[in-house]
Amino acid sequence: MSEELKKKAYLLASRLINQGYDYEVIRARMDKEGIPEDMIKQVIKNLTMQQIVEVAKENKPFFNVALIKIGIGILLAIISAILIPGQVYLPIGLIGTGIASAFLFKPK
Predict the structure, then answer these.
(1) Which residue spans traverse the membrane (predicted)?
(2) pTM of the predicted model over 0.70
Protein backbone atom coordinates (compact mmCIF):
# COMPACT_ATOMS: atom_id res chain seq x y z
CA MET A 1 0.00 0.00 0.00
CA SER A 2 2.85 2.37 0.81
CA GLU A 3 4.47 2.08 -2.62
CA GLU A 4 1.11 2.46 -4.31
CA LEU A 5 0.35 5.54 -2.22
CA LYS A 6 3.78 7.01 -2.97
CA LYS A 7 3.27 6.43 -6.70
CA LYS A 8 -0.15 8.08 -6.50
CA ALA A 9 1.34 11.05 -4.63
CA TYR A 10 4.11 11.58 -7.20
CA LEU A 11 1.70 11.31 -10.12
CA LEU A 12 -0.73 13.74 -8.56
CA ALA A 13 1.97 16.24 -7.61
CA SER A 14 3.72 16.14 -10.98
CA ARG A 15 0.40 16.56 -12.80
CA LEU A 16 -0.48 19.58 -10.66
CA ILE A 17 2.97 21.11 -11.13
CA ASN A 18 2.65 20.73 -14.90
CA GLN A 19 -0.73 22.47 -14.72
CA GLY A 20 0.96 25.43 -13.01
CA TYR A 21 -0.28 25.17 -9.43
CA ASP A 22 1.93 26.36 -6.58
CA TYR A 23 3.06 24.14 -3.73
CA GLU A 24 0.38 25.23 -1.25
CA VAL A 25 -2.39 24.15 -3.62
CA ILE A 26 -0.56 20.89 -4.33
CA ARG A 27 -0.17 20.27 -0.60
CA ALA A 28 -3.89 20.91 -0.01
CA ARG A 29 -4.95 18.61 -2.86
CA MET A 30 -2.67 15.84 -1.69
CA ASP A 31 -3.94 16.23 1.87
CA LYS A 32 -7.50 16.04 0.53
CA GLU A 33 -6.60 12.76 -1.22
CA GLY A 34 -5.53 11.28 2.13
CA ILE A 35 -1.77 11.28 1.64
CA PRO A 36 0.21 11.54 4.91
CA GLU A 37 1.90 14.87 5.72
CA ASP A 38 5.45 13.47 5.85
CA MET A 39 5.02 11.89 2.42
CA ILE A 40 3.65 15.19 1.05
CA LYS A 41 6.75 17.02 2.30
CA GLN A 42 9.04 14.40 0.77
CA VAL A 43 7.26 14.46 -2.60
CA ILE A 44 7.29 18.26 -2.82
CA LYS A 45 10.97 18.38 -1.79
CA ASN A 46 11.96 15.78 -4.39
CA LEU A 47 9.98 17.44 -7.18
CA THR A 48 11.48 20.84 -6.30
CA MET A 49 14.98 19.40 -6.45
CA GLN A 50 14.16 17.77 -9.79
CA GLN A 51 12.99 21.12 -11.21
CA ILE A 52 16.20 22.81 -10.02
CA VAL A 53 18.32 20.15 -11.72
CA GLU A 54 16.34 20.48 -14.95
CA VAL A 55 16.78 24.26 -15.00
CA ALA A 56 20.53 23.87 -14.39
CA LYS A 57 20.77 21.37 -17.27
CA GLU A 58 18.93 23.78 -19.57
CA ASN A 59 21.28 26.65 -18.71
CA LYS A 60 24.51 24.66 -18.97
CA PRO A 61 24.85 24.74 -22.80
CA PHE A 62 24.33 28.52 -22.78
CA PHE A 63 27.16 29.04 -20.32
CA ASN A 64 29.47 26.78 -22.34
CA VAL A 65 28.77 28.73 -25.54
CA ALA A 66 29.14 32.03 -23.67
CA LEU A 67 32.56 31.03 -22.33
CA ILE A 68 33.67 30.01 -25.83
CA LYS A 69 32.57 33.37 -27.29
CA ILE A 70 34.29 35.33 -24.53
CA GLY A 71 37.42 33.19 -24.97
CA ILE A 72 37.46 33.90 -28.71
CA GLY A 73 37.18 37.63 -27.96
CA ILE A 74 40.09 37.47 -25.52
CA LEU A 75 42.19 35.41 -27.94
CA LEU A 76 41.58 37.90 -30.75
CA ALA A 77 42.44 40.74 -28.37
CA ILE A 78 45.77 39.12 -27.47
CA ILE A 79 46.60 38.48 -31.13
CA SER A 80 45.71 42.05 -32.11
CA ALA A 81 47.77 43.45 -29.21
CA ILE A 82 50.78 41.47 -30.42
CA LEU A 83 50.35 42.34 -34.10
CA ILE A 84 49.39 46.00 -33.59
CA PRO A 85 51.07 47.13 -30.34
CA GLY A 86 50.05 50.79 -30.57
CA GLN A 87 46.31 50.11 -30.63
CA VAL A 88 44.59 50.01 -27.25
CA TYR A 89 40.97 50.30 -28.27
CA LEU A 90 40.90 47.33 -30.66
CA PRO A 91 41.66 44.64 -28.02
CA ILE A 92 39.21 46.22 -25.59
CA GLY A 93 36.58 46.30 -28.31
CA LEU A 94 37.18 42.66 -29.19
CA ILE A 95 36.79 41.57 -25.57
CA GLY A 96 33.64 43.68 -25.22
CA THR A 97 32.27 42.21 -28.45
CA GLY A 98 32.89 38.69 -27.18
CA ILE A 99 31.04 39.42 -23.93
CA ALA A 100 28.20 41.20 -25.69
CA SER A 101 27.74 38.46 -28.27
CA ALA A 102 27.66 35.83 -25.53
CA PHE A 103 24.78 37.46 -23.70
CA LEU A 104 22.86 39.19 -26.49
CA PHE A 105 22.58 36.18 -28.79
CA LYS A 106 21.76 33.48 -26.26
CA PRO A 107 19.77 30.50 -27.54
CA LYS A 108 16.16 30.19 -26.56
Answers:
(1) 62-82, 88-105
(2) no
Between 19 and 107, name the one with better pLDDT: 19
57 and 36 Cβ atoms separated by less than 8 Å: no
For the chain, the three-class secondary structure string (H helix, E strand, C coil) is CHHHHHHHHHHHHHHHHHCCCCHHHHHHHHHHCCCCHHHHHHHHHHHHHHHHHHHHHHHHHHHHHHHHHHHHHHHHHHHHHHHCCCCCHHHHHHHHHHHHHHHHCCCC
Query: Closest Cα to residue 33, out of 50, 18, 51, 11?
Result: 11
d(CA 94, CA 73): 5
Distance CA 32, CA 11 (A): 15
